[in-house]
Amino acid sequence: MRILPFSDMPLKKKITLIAVVSSSISLLIACFVFMLNESLTFPKVMRQNLSNLAQIIGDNSTAALSFNDSRTAQSLLDTLKANPHIRSACLYDLKGQPFARYTRPGEPEKWPPVVWEETSEFSAGAVRVFHPVLSAGDRVGTLYLESDTGEMQTRMVNYTLVTILVGGAAFLLSLLVASRLQRQVTGPLNQVVERMKDIARGEGDLTKRLEVTGKDEIGEVAEAFNTFVGKLQTVEDMKLDLISVVSHQLKTPVAEINGFIENMLMGLTGELNPKQRSYLEEMRVIGRENYRLICDLLSASKIDRGVVTVDLKPISTKEVVGLAIRDYEAPLAQKGLNLQLEGVWQGAMLYADRDKLVEALRNLINNALKCTDKGSITIRALAEGDKGVIEVEDTGVGMDAETMERLFTKNRVLGKEAHRSGAGLGLYITKNFMKYQNGDITVTSEKGKGTCFKLAVPLFKPGAGGAL
After folding, report:
1. Among residues of the chain, what percentage have pLDDT more than 70?
2. Reading across the β-sheet that carries 98-103, which strands appear in turn?
3. Helices marked H in 306-381 — which ranges?
4. Is 185 helix (H, G, I), strand (E, B) or coil?
5. Which of 43, 137, 170, 178 could form a Cys-Cys staple with 19, CB 3.0–4.6 A?
């Protein structure tokens, strides 16, 4: 798995990582200082404890040394067996000769020369003490004690285990706390980011506002975003008003112009020469495209305003397809494309808005016509469960996955294929019209091998007055 650099990590991971790492480092430093202090102070404690033990044994050995009672002295040193850390002990007389000796089982019998001064040292993994034995203030002998450092090693091992356990528990606890607390920071920011992405895709609802839950910097960002969206909504409303007014004002004169062109082509204004007829044919094509564009703008404006109404009624697949293909016979013939109809005449009854379903199908046929230079366009009717399906399949240029992801957005950009499939509103309108009819639209496509759009609406249930 690739490890992202810190700068590329999501914010929630950054916050969690900072909290966990900082708390872990603080805990490790505290444990290190604690263990360092223990390693520095415990040797002094061990020397002091061994000196105290030597004082006790020395005080109890006074009589044995004074009366030359080696048996009593030996019995006293043998009591050191109760302390497993004592390696060896030796009681010296005034001449520096061993008077009584003790060696831990398994240790070599070796005693150092007597040292007359009271000393204690920590070296070579052992603690050593020379302690004078006094009687009424006069020296009667010297006691030597040697202890291993096993107690210190045991303590350090225990401290290490405790450090590991506490560190692991603290790491998990800090991870849990950080992962929960980071939501308070990243949650509102994620809402802002998602809303901005939706708006950038042209899919955001500008009437919605973010809920401001705090007065910190995150709350200020949310407030600023709400203000920004409010201004966008104002601009969007002004744009929709302008589009609606202009489209309404243009629709009637364009329709009349198209009617005049049709009358002239029919010869109602007199005989036309070939050049005049050619010009009028071109004008008719342009006029139809302009009229279609105006209708699309009006439909998109109604969708964005939320004022679309639907009239759901039973309608036959045959009627829908017949109305949709009515104006495409000439364009199909002109491009040499074959129109194939499959299952249309035996299609079931649908429960939909006739005009909107026809317009949705016309948009798909128009899209297929623009994207197909040779081959055929197939319109197929079938039933899938409780849905009636109309498919439009072409043998055109097809689309890649990136194009299909933004295919149904209002402001999509189709790159190199924009001049063919158009960056218009047809598919955006179709998607919304299907939603209003409790239906759906899906698409499958492969680059260079064509595209298949599928419209699905509820089937009509005879006698029930509604959908299945």
Report:
1. 86
2. 98-103, 86-92, 138-148, 126-135, 119-123
3. 317-325, 329-335, 354-371
4. helix
5. 178
| 124 φψ region: left (φ > 0), alpha (ψ -120 to 50), beta (else) | left
pLDDT number for residue 179: 75
pLDDT single digits (tens) 193-242: 777 777 776 666 666 777 666 676 767 777 787 787 777 777 776 766 76
DSSP state of 149: S
For residues 440 and 415, state if they share a domain: yes
Q: Are residues 144 and 233 in the same domain?
A: no
Task: Say if residue 322 is in the same domain as residue 298.
Answer: no
Are residues 319 and 291 located together in one domain of the fold? no
What are the distances in angstroms from CA 58 to CA 74, 114, 119, 132, 406? Answer: 12, 15, 14, 7, 95
- Looking at the structure, tell me whether residues 276 and 420 fall in a common domain: no
Determine the structural domain holding residue 236 and report its residue range.
Answer: 217-302
For residues 296 and 147, give the distance between their C-alpha atoms in angstroms, rounded to a whole number.
98
Burial bucket for residue 330 (CB in 10 Å: 0-12, 13-18, 19+): exposed
Backbone phi, psi, residue 143, to 5°: -110, 135
Q: Looking up tokens 């964005």, which residue turns up?
A: 304
Number of domains in the chain: 3
Identify the bridge partners of residue 394 per DSSP, sorted by sequence position. Answer: 377
Find how far residue 175's CA is from the centre of its chain: 17
CA distances from 353 to 7, 301, 346, 436 (A): 52, 19, 20, 9
Inform me whether the pLDDT recorded for 456 exceeds 90. yes
Neighbours of 176 (CB within 10 A): 12
Q: What are the structure tokens assigned to 304, written together? A: 């964005």
Contacts of 15 (CB under 8 A, 6+ apart): 178, 181, 182, 185, 186
| Number of Cα atoms under 13 Å in the Cβ half of residue 224 | 8
Q: Count of CB atoms within 10 A of residue 275's CB?
A: 8
The CATH number of whichever domain residue 84 belongs to comes to: 3.30.450.20
In the chain, the largest separation of any two C-alpha atoms, in whole Å, equals 157
Contact 460/353 with Cβ under 8 angstroms? no
* pTM of model > 0.70: no
Q: What is the pLDDT of residues 397-451, one digit of tens each?
A: 888 887 777 787 765 443 344 444 443 578 888 888 889 899 999 999 988 889 9
Distance separating alpha carbons of residues 296 and 287, to the nearest angstrom: 14
DSSP string, 439-454: -EEEEEEETTTEEEEE
Which residue in 89, 90, 86, 139 sits closest to 117, CA to CA?
A: 139
